[in-house]
Amino acid sequence: MSIERVRGRRRVAAPVPIRIRLRHLLPCLLALAILAGTPALAAGDALYARALETLGGADRLRAITTVHERVHAQNFEPFQNRAADGPPNHVSDSEIEILWQPAMARFRIATRIETFHPFHAFYDNLEVFDGKRGAREGKDGFRPSPGPALAPARAAAELKALWLGHPALLMAHADSVTRLADALDAGRRLAVYEIAAADALWHLAIDPDSALPAKVETVERDPVWGRVANSYRFANWRVVDGVRVPFRREQTVAPAPARAAPRPYADLVGRVVLREIALDPPTGPDAFTIDGVPSANVPRGDLWAWGHGMSHWFLRRAAMGGQADEDQSQTIDFLEVGAGLYQVTGSSHHNLLVVGPDSLLLVDAPLYPERSRSILSALTRRWPDKPLSHVVLTHHHNDHMGGLAPYAAAGARIVASAADLGLYREMIRRTTGTDPDLVGITEKGQVPGFARPVAVYAVPNGHAFDMLIVHVPDARLLFDSDLYSPGRQAQNPQWARELYDAITYYGLDVATLVGGHGHGTEPIAALAKLVGE
Ligand SMILES: [Zn+2]
């Protein structure tokens, strides 16, 4: 099932959907039964009522105030894999203890995470939110944590994910339910309902045989695909205190409308196994505070809406130790690294800016469109006579190309690994509705149509198979992302070695290194020393 297919089917085949207030469900059913003019609808609504009964009954479900869980999660990232069309990268495992009060929007989430990509590390992180104020303690990534305040985007994302994982509670707390057309899902016919609950719309698919929820999805935004369906599938149902609970769930984030030829495995984001669950355990008055850590107001403004609107993105970043809950769109600095060359800094990810005789070239499109729009404004202010004519992408990882759409919409020619042109074409079509001007590089090549020599080379390496580095020969400067980060302490020795070997193999004249991470420049001698040359 996908939302678009549901809508498509609804347009052509479905009976007019009806809107039901949950507390009016039984009178509605009765009225339909009496009218008896739309037996398919009546049967469908009966299924919804049967599902609520099967899950434990609406009254029992609504009486649940507190959920306490321990889960084990395997976290996958489709856009941190080696090849863009390959399977997702298993970026981490996490053990999570959750205390959640859905009606009060309170949570306490303690996470022990072991990351495998981009660095192997262990982090312990505790987040609390009492419905208004939040705090955090510990570390959840290799970047410095911003302090004890819980970021609004993170709080909103956590709450959204909790609802997504608990279909019975969504049903019990629904403000309204609308029956949509049935959908075929992996050969099964599922009944689909649109539920308004917890400040969002959800599509809940119920298996008519078991009367259990098979899947819940909600439409979110994504820097790469634009609209995505953020979904959980549920399995291994067991009874806990009279309530049926799924002990296994699988999360995917897929473009919506769906691809013509779906690749569900590549959309895999998480597999969660419930280890323990308790309903309504006693909770102390301090359950949603952290001893000795001051809580701060978590405003439900733009940053909250940002986290709520793409919860998957924030939690996927955190799942690889690269949390990005703070707004990184506003600060734009141009750090001069050579004649007419700048590292564009001010966030966790940087671009290289090459100033040509009559236009500008950027390397990489970090993070998300909001940052790219700020960069475009800053470029126009500083170089009003030079449009952005080119963007070179080092590799397909979403933190380096998620900001591509505004550059493509501004008319920039996109230079990228030939292996990724299909991906970027689909990305630009979905996010801007236009066809991009794409140039593919196989092993090496000059950037065509840019009036200053800039050359691009492929690097065989263990981080991303499509990796390109950018050489500006007149400045003897080389830019790379992720393989080596000048000015940063943590380096991956294998990737640094692979970069050094590529520079040597191609015989590049390099004096200065600049990175998509780190800050400022380092001489080539620093890289040579690190790799023992
Ligand atoms: Zn990367």
Question: Gist?
Answer:
With 533 residues, this protein is of the alpha+beta class. Zinc ion (ZN) binds next to loops. The site of zinc ion has 6 residues, from loops.
Walk me through this protein's architecture.
With about 525 residues, this protein is α+β, with helices and mostly antiparallel strands. It folds into two domains: about 60-320, Clam (outer membrane lipoprotein receptor (LolB), chain A), CATH 2.50.20; about 335-530, Ribonuclease Z/Hydroxyacylglutathione hydrolase-like (Metallo-beta-lactamase, Chain A, 4-Layer Sandwich). The protein has a 15-stranded antiparallel beta sheet that branches. Strands 16-17-18-19-20-21-22 form a seven-stranded mixed beta sheet. A hairpin with a 4-residue loop joins strand 10 and strand 11 (about 210-220). The model is unreliable at about 1-45 (pLDDT under 50).
Topology:
Layout: H1 3-12, E1 19-20, H2 25-35, H3 39-55, H4 58-62, E2 67-77, E3 89-101, E4 106-115, E5 121-129, E6 133-138, H5 152-164, H6 167-172, E7 176-179, E8 183-185, E9 188-197, E10 200-207, E11 212-222, E12 226-240, E13 243-255, E14 268-279, E15 296-297, H7 302-309, H8 311-319, E16 333-338, E17 341-345, E18 351-355, E19 360-363, H9 369-382, E20 388-392, H10 398-401, H11 404-409, E21 413-417, H12 421-432, E22 438-441, E23 444-446, E24 455-458, E25 468-472, E26 477-480, H13 493-506, E27 512-515, E28 521-523, H14 524-530
Parallel strand pairs: 19-20, 20-21, 21-22, 26-27
Antiparallel strand pairs: 1-7, 2-3, 2-14, 3-4, 4-5, 5-6, 6-15, 7-9, 8-9, 9-10, 10-11, 11-12, 12-13, 13-14, 16-17, 17-18, 18-19, 23-24, 24-25, 25-26, 27-28
Helix pairs in contact: 2-3, 5-7, 5-8
The protein binds zinc ion (ZN).
The site of zinc ion has 6 residues, from loops.
